[in-house]
Write a structure and sequence with these properties.
By secondary structure, the chain is α+β, with helices and mostly antiparallel strands. The protein contains three helices and four strands; from the N terminus they run βαββααβ. Helix 1 runs antiparallel to helix 3.
Amino acid sequence: MPAFLVGTVRITDAEAFAKYGAAIKGLSANFGGESIMAGAVTHVMEGNSPVGERVVVSKFPTAEQARAYLTSPAYLAAKALRAGAAEIELRLIEI
Protein backbone atom coordinates (compact mmCIF):
# COMPACT_ATOMS: atom_id res chain seq x y z
CA MET A 1 0.00 0.00 0.00
CA PRO A 2 1.33 3.46 -0.81
CA ALA A 3 2.80 5.71 1.83
CA PHE A 4 3.49 9.41 1.80
CA LEU A 5 6.09 11.50 3.58
CA VAL A 6 4.68 14.95 4.24
CA GLY A 7 7.08 17.53 5.55
CA THR A 8 6.64 21.10 6.66
CA VAL A 9 9.78 23.18 6.62
CA ARG A 10 10.62 26.59 8.06
CA ILE A 11 14.08 27.47 6.76
CA THR A 12 16.22 29.50 9.17
CA ASP A 13 19.56 29.34 7.31
CA ALA A 14 19.08 29.19 3.54
CA GLU A 15 22.76 28.59 2.73
CA ALA A 16 23.09 25.59 5.06
CA PHE A 17 19.70 24.22 4.01
CA ALA A 18 20.76 24.36 0.35
CA LYS A 19 23.59 21.92 1.15
CA TYR A 20 21.02 19.50 2.59
CA GLY A 21 18.81 19.94 -0.48
CA ALA A 22 21.70 19.16 -2.81
CA ALA A 23 22.62 16.06 -0.78
CA ILE A 24 19.12 14.54 -0.93
CA LYS A 25 18.35 15.45 -4.53
CA GLY A 26 17.15 12.25 -6.23
CA LEU A 27 17.96 10.10 -3.19
CA SER A 28 14.38 9.01 -2.47
CA ALA A 29 14.14 7.50 -5.96
CA ASN A 30 16.64 4.86 -4.83
CA PHE A 31 13.92 3.69 -2.43
CA GLY A 32 11.01 3.93 -4.87
CA GLY A 33 10.12 7.48 -3.81
CA GLU A 34 8.77 10.14 -6.10
CA SER A 35 8.20 13.81 -5.44
CA ILE A 36 4.52 14.68 -5.58
CA MET A 37 4.84 18.38 -4.76
CA ALA A 38 6.99 20.96 -3.07
CA GLY A 39 6.15 24.58 -2.56
CA ALA A 40 5.69 27.47 -0.20
CA VAL A 41 2.45 28.24 1.59
CA THR A 42 0.93 31.32 -0.04
CA HIS A 43 -2.20 31.67 2.12
CA VAL A 44 -3.11 30.20 5.50
CA MET A 45 -6.79 29.38 5.36
CA GLU A 46 -7.05 27.99 8.91
CA GLY A 47 -4.59 27.61 11.73
CA ASN A 48 -1.29 29.27 12.52
CA SER A 49 1.18 28.03 9.93
CA PRO A 50 3.33 30.86 8.62
CA VAL A 51 3.06 32.08 5.04
CA GLY A 52 6.27 31.01 3.32
CA GLU A 53 6.52 27.70 5.17
CA ARG A 54 7.43 25.00 2.67
CA VAL A 55 5.43 21.81 2.25
CA VAL A 56 6.97 18.73 0.64
CA VAL A 57 5.13 15.53 -0.28
CA SER A 58 6.83 12.34 -1.50
CA LYS A 59 5.11 9.08 -2.40
CA PHE A 60 6.59 5.63 -1.77
CA PRO A 61 5.20 2.25 -2.83
CA THR A 62 5.26 1.09 0.82
CA ALA A 63 5.83 2.48 4.29
CA GLU A 64 8.82 0.16 4.62
CA GLN A 65 10.49 1.84 1.64
CA ALA A 66 9.83 5.27 3.12
CA ARG A 67 11.36 4.15 6.41
CA ALA A 68 14.34 2.63 4.58
CA TYR A 69 14.94 5.99 2.91
CA LEU A 70 14.80 7.87 6.22
CA THR A 71 17.17 5.46 7.93
CA SER A 72 19.64 5.09 5.05
CA PRO A 73 23.23 6.21 5.68
CA ALA A 74 23.00 8.69 2.78
CA TYR A 75 19.88 10.36 4.19
CA LEU A 76 21.26 10.46 7.73
CA ALA A 77 24.46 12.11 6.45
CA ALA A 78 22.39 14.68 4.55
CA LYS A 79 20.16 15.26 7.57
CA ALA A 80 23.24 16.22 9.59
CA LEU A 81 23.92 19.02 7.08
CA ARG A 82 20.59 20.69 7.88
CA ALA A 83 21.15 20.84 11.65
CA GLY A 84 20.25 24.36 12.73
CA ALA A 85 19.17 25.33 9.21
CA ALA A 86 15.45 24.59 9.49
CA GLU A 87 12.58 23.57 11.71
CA ILE A 88 11.02 20.47 10.20
CA GLU A 89 8.05 18.25 10.93
CA LEU A 90 7.92 15.03 8.96
CA ARG A 91 4.90 12.74 8.88
CA LEU A 92 4.43 9.27 7.46
CA ILE A 93 0.94 8.60 6.12
CA GLU A 94 -0.01 5.09 5.08
CA ILE A 95 -2.95 4.67 2.70
